Amino acid sequence: MEQSTRSNSPNLVVVFFFFLSFCNIPTLLSLPSSSSSTSAFPNEALPTKSGYLPVNPTTGSAIFYTFYEAQEPISTLSQTPLLIWLQGGPGCSSMTGNFFELGPWRVNFHKAKSDPLVLEPNSGSWNRLFGLLFLDNPIGTGFSIASTPQEIPRDQYTVATHLFAAITSFIELDPSFKFRPIYITGESYAGKYVPAIGYYILKKNADLAVSEQVNLAGVAIGNGLTDPITQVATHAVNAYFSGLINERQKSELEKAQWEAVGLTKSKNWSEATNARNKVLHLLQNMTGLATLYDFTRKVPYNSDLVTDFLQNNEVKKVLGANESIVFEECSDAVGDALHDDVMKSVKYMVEFLVKKSKVLLYQGHFDLRDGVVSTETWVKTMDWEGVGNFSMAGRKVWKINKALAGFVQKWGSLSQVVVLGAGHLVPTDQSLSSQAMIEDWVLERGLFGHPQEEDLSSNFQGAL
For the whole model, what pTM was predicted? Predict the structure, then answer.
């Protein structure tokens, strides 16, 4: 998720990786044996692989990962797709995605809040049919290691170079990974990370031998911040027509939005980010909502459970994480480093990706930060020859087990999904819907299969 409040201390640790790399000792750590598991972390919940992937062997900076192999692969593992998950923030850990959203096990209370935290199976996990890799990105986030504050990325190009190093290192761990189709996924501020690494891979592949290329098959962005200058201008109209503010408040919010847009156009990046934060704070104060991430919630998401769980040294040990790191859900240091990046657009990267691969954009219906209106507004401005056909494509009713799950719009390589009953953290709110969505999109089944033609009758369904 995007950071709304940040922790107080940066997560920067200089550890033994410099020594290991200097001595030419591999820094790809495997998970300890199952005998090391704790009562809070049962054997069956252990990742298939876990540890660190170097992004700079000279300094020891590395990205922490957890990997879960497919539970029920529908093909040989060498052909089974690999999903990569990137959390947003900037600076929030993908372990939130792992243990609170779409991983095979979720953190919860045993019976009451006074009881120890436990892991419970997640029937909506994204690794039911596919391999699933979580990366703590950028370095300095979660359990990842930034050897110095200066090495933390300050732009999406550096984010992408680090991710490319980590992904290629991961692929080298197992020969069967080499030709598996890879899908980069993520949410919120990963609406920048996902296009950045996807774009980087495709550009890099053009200069590499086939045997060295990364087999990118597509990218998926949930409730993403991708084209901020367009998206920041949607909050007032969205809140107004949702009945959350009146016309006077709408005008006040629009004034704040115009300030953010103007500063962005003048490339005053730091002040533009501050102006966007002002818009969000203003909207929060006007509505009095528990969270803008889901306007139906009476209390915010309880993702703090993940932080409490991962601060346990025994849990760190079984995951192969450096035990000297005090886990924080979101890193101040990373958020500060990317402050000037917030209002910069990566829409051009999505435009490139949609021409070379396939793209999924999905949004939880209740999200007020980076939701449906926010996404549809920037999609309309894409420089892509298919955007007109996409805009005119039928919006199909999407059902799971005969129950309404949302809506799917598709044309060519671009798909958009509105997930009903969900806010910013779609897999948390609607785990089975999110699982069905990602599986059908990857496998091109159901509404994600053959190109859809406009069904004019559907536009008038229920109008009378």
Answer: 0.90
